[in-house]
Write a structure and sequence with these properties.
- There is one protein chain.
- The chain contains 2 helices and no strands.
- The longest helix has 27 residues, at about 25-50.
- The chain is about 90% helix and about 0% strand.
- The protein is mostly helical.
Length: about 55
């Protein structure tokens, strides 16, 4: 996973959190947190896979 993709995902997370504050809907909060978790897992697995060779 490239740096650009990571920051694009982070931007999407922030936008989702803003949408949650606007609407108050728990679906935006849950979706944003789930997306952030997937983003972190993808970053960690791609970095770990690269260092193993």
């Amino acid at each position: 996973m490239g740096t650009v993709a990571f920051f694009a995902g982070l931007l999407l997370f922030v936008m989702g959190m803003g949408k949650w504050q606007e609407t108050g809907s728990p679906w935006w909060l849950g979706g944003s947190l789930a997306f952030l978790l997937l983003l972190v897992v993808a970053a960690l697995t791609s970095r770990g896979g690269g260092s193993k060779g």
